[in-house]
Design a protein that fits this description.
Length: about 100
């Protein structure tokens, strides 16, 4: 097991995680820290436990929405999606052409 030091709301915590998951744990901690700061306006709006609980409840609400299919769709750059689909289609055509020649 690996040990990782993370920071949430200005406090440091030492956490254990599976080897190789350290970066992911730091990424998740940064996400939670950002959500907490946005929810509380960056200041202290109650006890730390209340702020952490509010953040957890908001994240749980969002997760349930996503799991039930009501999730908030992220902003999508349609041009980038179309370009990527074109690139994938061309790659599929190339592979198909090679298979036909074989």
């Amino acid at each position: 097991m690996a040990q990782v030091d993370i920071e949430v709301n200005g406090r440091f915590y030492r956490m254990l995680c599976e080897d190789g998951q350290e970066a992911r744990l730091r990424e998740l901690a940064a996400y939670v820290d950002d959500r907490l700061r946005r929810l509380t306006g960056g200041g202290r709006s109650g006890s730390e436990a209340q702020m952490m609980l509010m953040t957890c409840l908001v994240l749980a609400d969002e997760l349930q929405d996503v799991m039930s299919g009501k999730g908030i769709a992220p902003a999508v750059d349609e041009g980038a999606v179309v370009g990527e689909l074109d690139r994938v289609a061309k790659r599929i055509e190339e592979v198909a052409a090679r298979l036909e020649r074989a």
